[in-house]
Specification:
Strand content of chain A: 15-25%
Oligomer: homodimer
Number of strands of chain A: 15
Largest interface: A-B, 80 and 79 residues
Distance between the termini of chain A: 32 Å
Radius of gyration of chain A: 24 Å
CATH architecture of the largest domain in chain A: Alpha-Beta Barrel
Chain lengths: 360, 360
């Protein structure tokens, strides 16, 4: 799928936009005053595959935590700041890689100029983040609670920065309503070429939050819109990263690790497929190489789909047929399916089938 | 969002297409020979909110199970049949409400005519289900493994039915690849006005399967495409229904039960929001009335979003502010948040705020 070409900005070492890989974000939920706990969470997020971490910076003491984390890791950090441009100045001073502020509510014109000048000097990009829940009254009166109101509100903030000759801008337009979120991003994407940070805000608790975010973020990504994503869940930040990576993988925008294509089972299925697929997922979850494994219950769809996969099995009565890149390797008793697949994948990895020779 | 207007068909009492509510499907994975187990699963699916249930009909004995289930419930049943038109005739005889067959591979022309004539007489609609994994070789040679090949393959089957004067048709074009699935449905949606059954096939184990299905199905629904959906998961059929309903609710296509808008928490959050939101979700899960509840950690986004919700709380330091339809009702200690919200919702329900007086 073709991606919309946006301007590129850099959050520290991380490129955003302009054809860069889509990055996955999250935000710490420890007290930012607690540097040790926050650092531990940042490390946990890095381990989960997070590309860039946001911190709430709500007072001056929070900026000490930025310094402390910067000493320990080079993962790009974003400061989330409301209402006070001096905190943003202090965050830049502390080495922050990106700011999330809305210039229209961060202080006086003179204050914003100071901040923008400092950000410009160090090439610290600014994300303008409009949430449908906190639109200004005049926008709501003019456009109602609409995607248009969100976009126009973002453009108002953008103009403040552009007026000051600042263009290292990222934009987000989040609503908790999925169709409204999608429409707002589509609208702004046609108006500007700044990179877009995608998210559905307040998406809720894990299960429904993942569904809402998958639709909202996924739908836009599938249209080529979006440069960096954050899944907002009422759950741990690492869960947000897991879901974000899942969305990218579902769209083929990140190729990494095992992808199991497994059928939903039906009355035709004669093997214990749910258990087999789950055990394989578990056993193969540590693999970084992109491997497509098909686990199919029957001969109707099995062989066809398994042919597209790197390796696959299709179940029969008490036995399974094993395929590798479209060729039948053999037939085995169902009880041996698990070990046979693991062994074959190990051998394929060892022989460099997947571009490296990492072992399980 | 505007929906594409399709022809309407009826699977028993259930309208599909032509502006009917989008129905949620699943498929039993018990042995269809085991009538008792299959009936139990059908009942379980009805309880989960399933609108229409598919059964694999792979031999004559399976059709006895259709009869047995029909005696006990009126939920519409679909027979999934491959390669043998006689099974389809027997399923119609047994009272099936809809067939899933591909006319091009169900038997001789004479056989298909018999079947289509029987289906036409009883107004039993036929779903043509094309899966990217089982495309015929000539289509793959002509169009490659593309969305176009899937659509053209479906149209070939459609022509057989149209030639026989049969138009009670539903179409599905499923791939395990999400972008390919989306493209195939977009393509066919522009070519025909038959109702579309949406699904991503072999989406995999629950977690990734839900992400893939949410993107694929959700993206199309958000464009107004799709009349009935099935989430295919390597999990129990009831889990498929839960995810399907979740997708419809995320898009506002089904309004039922509690919707919790809760923030992801961050370093500003001073209350134990994840736990509070989860406990509320659990306690309120039985409610059928559509209630929008906001559970927000801080004052930055909290009050704004909470104003849009029927009822909401925004956390402060050790306390919460309670909102009802935009008005502050009061401030309470954090420990009382749970009971206060439950009590308010009970009172709102009792006084008919949500269109009925169901109690918790």
């Amino acid at each position: 799928m073709e991606r919309k070409l946006t301007r590129r900005v850099y959050a520290g070492r991380l490129p955003i936009g302009g054809g860069a890989p889509i990055s996955v974000q999250s935000m710490t939920n420890t007290s930012t005053h607690d540097a040790a706990a926050t650092l531990a969470q940042v490390h946990e997020l890095e381990k989960a595959g997070c590309d860039i971490v946001r911190l709430a910076i709500y007072d001056k003491a929070c900026t000490d935590t930025i310094k402390a984390i910067k000493k320990e890791t080079d993962i790009p950090l974003v400061a989330d700041i409301h209402f006070d441009y001096r905190l943003a100045l202090a965050a830049i001073e502390a080495g922050i890689d990106k700011l999330r502020i809305n210039p229209g509510n961060i202080g006086s014109r003179a204050g914003v100029e100071k901040l923008v000048s400092a950000a410009g000097e160090r090439r610290v990009p600014i994300r303008i983040g409009v949430n449908s829940g906190s639109l200004k009254d005049d926008m709501v009166q003019k456009y109602g609670h609409t995607p248009r109101a969100m976009a126009e509100s973002a453009l108002e903030h953008v103009m403040i920065l552009e007026d000051m000759g600042f263009y290292d801008i990222v934009l987000s337009l989040k609503a908790s309503d999925v169709p409204r979120t999608i429409e707002a991003y589509r609208y702004i994407s046609q108006r500007v070429d700044y990179p877009l940070h995608l998210g559905v805000t307040e998406a809720g608790i894990t299960y429904n939050g993942i569904i809402k975010s998958s639709i909202g973020i996924g739908c836009l990504l599938a249209e080529g819109i979006g440069d960096t994503i954050r899944v907002s869940l009422t759950d741990t930040p690492a869960e947000e990263v897991k879901a974000g990576i899942g969305i990218l993988k579902a769209l083929g925008l990140k190729q990494e690790g095992i992808e199991i294509i497994s059928c939903p089972t039906c009355g035709r299925c004669n093997i214990d497929l749910i258990s087999l697929a789950s055990r394989l997922q578990e056993a193969l979850s540590g693999i970084k190489s992109p491997i497509k494994l098909a686990v199919m219950g029957c001969v109707v769809n099995g062989p066809g789909e398994a042919k597209e996969a790197d390796i696959g099995i299709a179940g029969g009565k008490g036995q399974v047929a094993l395929f590798k890149k479209g060729s039948i390797v053999g037939t085995y008793p169902e009880q041996r399916a698990f070990e046979v697949i693991i062994k074959e994948i190990q051998e394929m990895m060892a022989s460099g089938c997947f571009g490296d020779n990492t072992s399980l």
